[in-house]
Amino acid sequence: MKQVIVITGASSGFGALAARELAKAGHTVYASMRDTATRNVPQVEAVKKFAQDNNVDLRTVELDVASQDSVDAAIQQIIKENGHLDVVIHNAGHMVFGPTEAFTTEQLAAAYDINVLSTQRGISCG
Known about the structure:
The protein is of the alpha/beta class and 126 residues long. The protein is built from four helices and four strands. The chain has a four-stranded parallel sheet, sandwiched between helices. The mean pLDDT is 91.
């Protein structure tokens, strides 16, 4: 059964790979990422090229998991375009390495925000 899927953090790595494979399996997939009009333009173009070359329904959507407004806007766009959203795959994350005392409180709070709170933003919208 065809599903409408959004994957956070899909500009590269596991998110991009998962988006491609799920699209090849016949699903409508939104590869979400930040900065689609600036820093991630090459990734947006790569998604378009992959979709065209493979005749799949793979799209991009601007979504910054650190912003509730951005998450809400992306989910609303997906629902407007498809009438529903079936699956949210929360892949966005930020890894930090080293002893805790090597990081400032602000750095740890930012990692917590991306890795924990952003999941809640994604599941509590719509």
